[in-house]
Specification:
disordered C terminus; about 375 residues; about 75% helix; mainly alpha
């Protein structure tokens, strides 16, 4: 995610063309990869090959780059219309990503702000009793990167809701993309040049501050790979490929993804994720697989809330008295955590995320329609 995540999380674009059903399936698979990776925290020692689960976020980033390019492929008009389109673009990204993230963040940080509220005896106390933890929560809500407040993650740049680190990159990418929309037909080139330049700067200078480390990270290049996939897709969407060939390419992509995870090389991971994204687009063209579709729909809820569900899952594991040793026990423990995470996340998707998105999108459409009638057509 991704998010549109995750995000990389623009379901609207996927619903506009059945040829992109594979991206929805891939987002669901990527979310399960992340759940699998985090479920290993129950154990002290885990095999290194299981690190591939963390590569779900690389799939999200590449997918995000593709979707942003795809959804703006018909962008045109004068500067005023492009400015309005840019605002609509950011509004849609905000609606899709931010509200549910804020809910997940509030839940994760509830101990800090509930204690802050409970110990305040006057409005003045609400100001004077602001703790470093609450300031970190505020930064997270505004997508401002900071060092982790968790002692186990000392020195790492993580939000209180750890999964939110990817959203910091997503929101930065959206902002850059929205600004580059003013270049119209050259917007993808402009975005790619800016992202690549930031990565090069990061390689040239050894930044030690949080902003420098985050905004010149080599992970930004994965958004560029997503844009490159869109360019390749634009040239190949009319072609039909043998499924055995696509499967072979997909296997190569996942092998690259695994080898890239061992060295954490974002260029290798970017290429691997790009191959996988392109393969899924073509391999599942007009192929309806409802379970994978539902999984993809709920992928953002899964991504944000799976760690919170582990509390209940591990209570169940303790109740069942499953030991940590032995292959079957390990499989059972990971399976239980994934199952509980999926049940909880599907509930959140159907009862919170989906209704909330429906309301917010309806409100945005009303605003856009009204402004469009008053001042001309608004694209996007």
């Amino acid at each position: 995610m991704l998010a549109d995540i995750f995000s990389s999380m623009n379901s609207e674009a996927l619903k506009n063309g059945t040829s992109l059903d594979g991206l929805q399936y891939l987002r669901g698979i990527a979310s399960l990869m992340v759940v699998f990776f985090h479920s290993r925290s129950y154990f002290v020692d885990v095999p290194t090959w299981t690190d591939i689960g963390a590569r779900g976020v690389d799939l999200f980033f590449v997918t995000s780059g593709f979707i942003m390019a795809y959804t703006t492929k018909h962008l045109g008009g004068n500067t005023a219309l492009v400015a309005k389109a840019s605002l609509v673009f950011l509004s849609k990204r905000f609606i899709r990503v931010v509200p549910l993230y804020w809910l997940a963040l509030l839940w994760t940080s509830r101990t800090y702000w509930l204690n802050w509220w409970a110990t305040a005896t006057s409005p003045k106390d609400l100001v004077t009793n602001l703790s470093p933890e609450l300031i970190s929560v505020a930064k997270d809500a505004a997508f401002i990167p900071h060092l982790s407040i968790d002692e186990d993650e000392e020195g790492e740049i993580f939000p209180i809701l750890i999964q939110g680190w990817t959203l910091n990159y997503e929101m930065f990418f959206y902002l850059i993309f929205a600004c580059c929309m003013f270049f119209r037909r050259y917007r993808l080139l402009a975005v790619s040049v800016i992202m690549a330049t930031l990565v090069v700067v990061g390689k040239m200078y050894a930044f030690t501050n949080v902003g420098g480390l985050v905004y010149t990270s080599s992970i930004l290049i994965e958004f560029v790979f997503g844009i490159l996939v869109f360019k390749v897709y634009s040239k190949t969407q009319h072609l039909t490929f043998d499924r055995s060939t696509l499967i072979g390419l997909g296997v190569i992509g996942f092998l690259l993804l695994n080898s890239g995870s061992n060295v954490n090389d974002k260029f290798v991971l970017g290429v691997a994720a790009a191959v996988i994204v392109w393969v899924f687009i073509h391999a599942f063209r007009d192929v309806q697989i409802r379970p994978l579709k539902i999984l993809g729909d709920a992928s953002y809820s899964i991504y944000l809330f799976h760690a919170a569900s582990f509390v209940a899952a591990r209570e169940l594991i303790g109740y069942l008295d499953i030991g940590r040793e032995g292959y079957l026990n390990v499989v059972a423990i990971i399976t239980i955590q994934i199952f509980v995470a999926m049940v909880a996340s599907f509930a959140i998707y159907y009862f919170i995320e989906k209704p909330m998105l429906k309301i917010l999108r309806k409100l945005l459409n009303r605003v856009v329609s009204r402004k469009g009638q008053e001042k001309g057509h608004l694209p996007l």
